[in-house]
Amino acid sequence: MMGSLSVPGGLVLIRDSVQWEGRSLLKAMVKRAALRGERVHVLGCEVSEEEFREGFDPAVNSRLVYHDLFKDPLNWCDKEDAVLGGPLGALRALCQRTDPRPVTVALDSLSWLLLRLPCTTLCQTLRALSRPAVYSGDSSLVEQIQVLGLLHEELHGPGPMGALSSLAHTEVTLGGKMGQTSAHIFYRRPQQHATYQTWWFSILPDFSLELQEEPPFHLQPHPGPHTAQVSKCQSQDKEVDPMTHLTFNLRLSKKEREARDSLTLPFQFSSEKQQALLCPGPGQATSHIFYEPDAFDDLDHEDPDDDLDI
């Protein structure tokens, strides 16, 4: 079933991994934005401009404004086309946009920026960049820029990942099965419940998206020697007692259970102890403390100190 990947404005995180790269999806979303007539700013850090533009037709490339940080990431070279102020300067310049037309910013990649800029500074800049803008003179012109950020989640710890996730309006986590790529999409919309969708897709050579709501039928595993062997192993695993290889026994036999039930614990008040208390023998101490549980006591014979929380 063909579908449409609807991504609202704001910050969109494309989270990829070693197994499932996300640059192709980023380029596919850049192409869709360009074909909608939007101006697309690309902050290129990890690949060259030639490699990023490769595969796009002239109509798409004409709408791309490329900020090249790949050739001179630290802005050391004195060139006319150098990015003023480096990556942070480029981001802050985009925050001061004056064009009311829709704009998309593609960050390739957020991981590159996060490894070179303080996390708080980057998050504050992204927050300002993805904030709705109201242009002077006409309060009806409210535009929210769309920021597409490619994020290699295996490179970062839970702190930076959590900070970026809290800023994102949409998170696209790439996965897959049997060679087919899936996108697990988490939407956060203001004053609405968060929604979650899963799309299966493939990217064509011209970076067009072919979307499906369900995995294709041919991806379902067919019975074969390997499939049958896996199924047999799984069925055998279900029948195996999980306590077979333990060094201790968690179950009691009937005789052991009867012995446990007939055992009188030292703190319990029995008839023998009552008789010994009433008729103490010669030389026997008469000061004893006996405890008789009432109906509301919850005694656990396996853990008599359960009430002590130790």
Describe this protein's structure.
It is a single chain. With 310 residues, the chain is α/β, with parallel strands linked by helices. It has helices spanning 23-35, 49-53, 58-61, 86-95, 110-114, 119-129, 158-167, 225-239, 254-262, 271-278; strands spanning 10-16, 39-44, 64-68, 103-108, 133-134, 142-143, 146-152, 170-177, 180-187, 195-203, 209-212. The strands form two sheets. It has a nine-stranded mixed beta sheet with strand order 3-2-4-7-1-8-9-10-11, with helices on both faces. It has a two-stranded antiparallel sheet with strand order 5-6. A hairpin with a 7-residue loop joins β9 (180-187) and β10 (195-203). α4 (86-95) runs parallel beside α6 and α6 runs parallel beside α7. The longest helix is centred in the C-terminal third of the chain and has 15 residues, at 225-239. The protein is elongated. The relative contact order is 0.13. Mean pLDDT is 77; it is low at 217-237.
